[in-house]
Give the backbone structure.
Amino acid sequence: MHLPDGLIPLWQAAIYWILTIILLTLYTFKLSKTEDKQKIIINTAILAAVTFAASSISIPSPFGVPVHLFMIPLVVILLGPLSGVAVAFICFIVQFLFLGMGGITSLGANVVTMGIMMSFSTYYFYKFTSELDERLGIFSGTFVGIIVATISQIVILLLAGVATLDVLLSTLVPFYLFVGIVEGVLNIFIILSLFKLKPEVGEVPQI
């Protein structure tokens, strides 16, 4: 889902960068007002490293295209939506510099899809459905977050005029439906295991 440089017109890329900067500024402001900021920073750094490592691993899929886990929904459920945006931003910069994934001009667009849209849709859907069942909340939050990010990327690509709706729907949607199911199931095991082994993880303030 990483969009490379040169795919999006610069004026559109600038808009996505502005949105990214606004959300990162809001994250920094809320972090500065939080009493347990040191604990949040440590947990964010750990999850950013885990996200970078896990999302860089290629997993074979039945579609013939390797799957890269997002991990942002897991961060969001544990630390909150703005933390998801911050982790996405950090990971995308590191992945570009060391792995050549994504780009600099397109980084704002990638943060909008996999940071902003994925984070907030995951967070609110998780909060809503976890009142019924925690497992349902984790799975549905993860799944919906990935699908909302996919739809957001489709809109960005359509606005950039680089692909048609038919092509995008037939290629991106089936693939990320599969990714959403796989990552949703994995997150159930990972998050519930964390809550069981380290209950204090669930007590960290969310941003």
